[in-house]
Amino acid sequence: MQSNTLYDVIGVGLGPFNLGLAALLDPVKEVNALFLEQKPEFAWHPGLLIENTTLQVPFLADLVTMADPTSPYSYLNYLRHQKRLYHFYFLEHFHVPRKEYSHYCQWVSKQLNSCQFGQQVIGFEFHQQKDPSQNYYEVCVRDTKSKEIELLRCKHLVLGIGTAPIIDERFQQFSDQDIFHSSLFLERQKRCQEAKKITVIGSGQSAAEVFLTLFQDQTNHSYELSWYTRSNGFFPMEYSKLGLEHFSPDYTRYFYSLSQEQKDERRSKQDLLYKGISASTIADIYDLYYERTIGGQSVPVTLQAMTTLESIEPRFDGTYELKLTHTEQEVSSTHQSDVVILSTGYASQVDLMLHPFGEYIQRDEKQRPIIQEDYQIATQGCQNNRIYIQNGELHSHGIGAPDLGLGAYRNSVIINSLLGSEVYPVQEKNVFQQFGTARVPSYI
């Protein structure tokens, strides 16, 4: 079925970033926007909505506040509608419970007519007309319930499909009840409670939260618990105030001004700015370990860094044998486990979505899409019909790409670019330090 509507923009995927864009576009009547998501409702990392975990950014990093504090879709307005303003006030926490952030996003999504769930985008096609101003994208959409196909048209696209869990192909052959990504942790928690030996692989915040949850529950289920990471240690994420200024529009603009070679070199040295563990989580783990070992008691727990998981082999008894290598000592060992939780990060799905556009997409020497400063992908042959990217620009805009605190800023830039005017003011100076020589961004 072909729709007669020509949308100004269609957003593909409804994670926090495209949901924030939909919220900020809601009062902009000049733009007819539609956002599509294949899931039946908004869902943000449901397998990691662990009790007592919070976002790693303040509540001001909601969908809209950093662009428009007066928006009806702010987190504070959500609290007001939930009759929880005083509860939050007395809580005196700057960081939002992760479970409540997810519920807040659901609350926003249900108010926006531009957001449609249960709609799977299965293809794109660019249509060129004799008059270039009449060019458009055709988006093929399948309703996940009725299975009906609809063809939608739009002038511009915004890709916000997010990331997918990374699991080494060598480990994908095993039962996902026993060996699974940390993103499925809550769905597999009962399986963990039934195990005799559990192993966590990884060094980031998710690995630490999964390990801590299992450690806290260990006395109820008596399993052995091990945590291995190939990183040099269980280190905290950089969280000093001047360190946090790297997650600002100012640093994003500075990073963008570097050559691609400089960007790649710089980013390779910034892991602890966005990949470490929160100091409070590390403290909770240490404190629990201390409490459990009072009086010389031993706990069946192993923590070991500088250790690489080389292979997993099934055993005759239904368990698994892990081959591990200590990278500094160059010593190999084996470890038996019933369950292996792989907290091995996430990968961008941008290339998957860009594949249908083929030669229209301009790429750098490493075949990554070239992304302009206003977050549109550089194209050839369809420059008047833009494709914007959400959280797929780590290589071009730096470590702030996946940060929730910069979502409203990026959406402001995208909206201003779409309309060719400053709908949402973008402030040039936001931090105390200066990252480079003064420069005026091209889109201001």
Could you characterize the architecture of this molecule?
The chain is of the alpha/beta class and 444 residues long. It has 2 domains: 2-162 and 349-419, FAD/NAD(P)-binding domain; 167-237 and 275-342, FAD/NAD(P)-binding domain, CATH 3.50.50.60. Helix content is 27%, strand content 24%. The chain contains 14 helices and 19 strands. The strands form 5 sheets. Strands 1, 2, 5, 6, 7, 8 and 19 form a 7-stranded mixed β-sheet that branches. It has a 5-stranded parallel β-sheet with strand order 10-17-11-12-13, with helices on one face. It has a 3-stranded antiparallel β-sheet with strand order 14-15-16, with no helix packed on it. Strand 15 and strand 16 form a beta hairpin. Helix 1 (16-25) crosses helix 14 (407-419) and helix 6 (205-221) runs parallel beside helix 11. The relative contact order is 0.16. The model has no long low-confidence stretch (mean pLDDT 95).
